Amino acid sequence: RFEVGFDDEGHVLALDAELYADGGWSLDLSKPVLQRGMFHIDNAYLVPALRVVGRVCKTNVVSHTAFRGFGGPQGMVVIEEVLDRVARATGLPPHVVRERNLYRDGDLTHYGQVVDDAERMRTMWSKLVGSSDLQQRWEAIEAFNAEHDDKKRGLAITPVKFGISFTTAFFNQAGALVLLYQDGSVQVSHGGTEMGQGLHTKMIQVAADAFGVELETIRLMPTRTDKVPNTSATAASSGTDLNGQAVREACRAIRERLAEVAGIHFRVAPGDIVFEGGKVYPIGAKDTAVDFAKIAKEAYLQRVPLFSTGYYRTPNIHFDEKAGVGKPFHYFAFGCAVTEVEVERFTGQYTVLRADILHDVGDSLSPLVDKGQVEGGYVQGVGWLTREELLWDGKSGRLTTGGASTYKLPTLGDMPLDFRVDLLEKAPQPGVIHGSKAVGEPPLMLAISAREAIRQAVSAFGDAPTEVTLACPSTPEQVYWAIERV
Q1: Alpha-carbon torsion (442, 479, 5, 78), positive or negative
Q2: Which of 343, 353, 379, 381 is nearest to 477 (CA)?
Q3: Could you say which architecture CATH assigns to the domain 173-313?
Q4: Are 381 and 373 in contact (CB under 8 A)?
Q5: Which of 478, 472, 483, 477 has its CA nearest to residue 76?
Q6: Taking 90 as the threshold, does the pLDDT of residue 463 lie above it?
Q7: Interval 267-289 mean pLDDT
Q8: Which pLDDT score is estimated for 467?
Q9: How do strand 173-180 and strand 49-58 relate by DSSP bridges?
Q10: Distant-in-sequence, close-in-space partners of 166: CB < 8 Å, separation ≥ 6
Q11: Annotated active-site positions, please?
Q12: Is 458 in a helix, a strand, or coil?
């Protein structure tokens, strides 16, 4: 439930919202999930006066728990619904209302955190509007819709601002163990879990960069608590941020010892030693380089320890739950997406014709991995918002959509026919491993643009632009009934 105040230009002035979470029969993680939804009800928009209240409801169904986004997507869906209604009430295009309400540098969130680099979002918005040919495509869609009664097209652009850190502060820590052998090979253990997101690949890159060696030199060990104890969950999009810093710290300690050994070898100061391409040499004397393994062997012979632990904890994060203010996030990840869809009148079925995405991953550790995460997150988000419906038996409380025949996962046919993903360039994030940014959860929320595009297509079936009440998930059945209502 919400009430919103706005002016004739589409600027949101105040929002009073209540969020209700279906927790099922036990609390599980429903409280922190709801809290993150409350943190993200602003998404990327400044609301000068915002009050949000959250309540977890105990219901007669199975206990619910966390999923990618951890409440952030649910909060963002609410504000996008609000802005669409503001747009229709003022007669302004939704994209105009969204752009006018974007944060600017120095603005504060409703919980008192400064939105650093907020202008980066506006820059990304402008770039994507241009690269996606937004204006020309709107004109083409208007012409298409005027010529077709049985199907309509919709186009929408939406932003993402997602806070990176565990909102429970003590989880924001990580450890690592790095071992260097006489042959120059390196063994790395860290506390993160590889689940297909490319975490191990990035940890190998961090270690290889620290020692100036090839990737093949690094051996990544399975995550084990007898190597790195008291690990935090690999969650909150912080796996690389936390474990990467811990790995780098361990490597740094060993490298400093090696630099002293190399300094003796070359008769120069340790600070003048270069580690690069599997070689070690003094600054300005690359022709005298020796193999990295040779320095490792010399260090062993000189009884220099070739192992180290690393530890990292995210600095300067805090939140006062009673006061509702603080700095719960280390930084924000930004993104923008433009989605075009085509909706059939008599079935409610949709096709994603094209998706254009510009996402901010800072100075990417691995652009290939990060692009894969953006693509996968978007498609997963489209499934969550338009296909994956949970239905319950009213008497027993049992889930009736618990199998592949009833729970509709996104398939190849749900992929955008034209899928364009770009990463924002030259945008390093200070204070994060090599200037990178988290890329785990934020891309899922880019899919909100698909739901808003469906809303635009449904609206086009009416005689005049009207407010469209669209269920979430917006399944073909729900889209069909929405068309009937307009």
Answers
A1: negative
A2: 343
A3: 2-Layer Sandwich (3.30)
A4: no
A5: 472
A6: no
A7: 97
A8: 81
A9: unpaired
A10: 172, 232, 235, 236, 238
A11: 441
A12: helix
Q: What is the amino acid identity at position 30? A: S
pLDDT of 248 over the 80 cut = yes
The answer to whether residues 441 and 237 touch, using CB atoms and an 8 Å cutoff, is yes
Please tell me whether residue 352 adopts helix, strand or coil conformation.
Answer: strand
Answering whether pTM is above 0.70, one says yes
Q: Do 332 and 416 contact (CB within 8 A), yes or no?
A: no
Structure tokens at 124: 């990304």
- What CATH class is the domain 2-167+321-485? alpha beta
pLDDT digits (tens, 9 = 90+) for 133-177: 999 999 999 999 999 999 999 999 999 999 999 999 999 999 999
Task: Say which residue the tokens 């632990």 belong to.
Answer: 309
Q: Which helix (H) or strand (E) is 418 found in, with range?
A: strand 418-423
Between CA 308 and CA 251 the distance in angstroms is: 7
> Domain segments of the chain: what residues?
2-167+321-485, 173-313
AA letter at 480: Y
Is it true that 2-167+321-485 and 173-313 share their CATH fold?
Answer: yes
Residue-level pLDDT at 413: 86
397 pLDDT band (50/70/90 cuts)?
Answer: confident
3-state percent helix, strand, coil for the chain, nearest multiple of 5: 35, 25, 40
Summarised one tens digit per residue, pLDDT across range 34-89 is 999 999 999 999 999 999 999 999 998 989 999 999 999 999 999 999 999 999 99
Chain mean position to CA 426: 18
Q: Which two tokens stand for residue 348?
A: 């409610």
Instruction: Quote the CA–CA distance of 122 and 278 in Å, as a whole number.
Output: 42
Give 338's pLDDT tier (boundaries 50, 70, 90). very high
C-alpha distances in Å from residue 316, one per residue of 172, 304, 312, 388: 11, 35, 13, 38
Per DSSP bridges, beta strands 325-327 and 331-344 are unpaired
Query: Which residue from 111, 115, 38 is spatially nearest to 79, judged by alpha carbons?
Result: 38
Token couple for 112: 């008192």
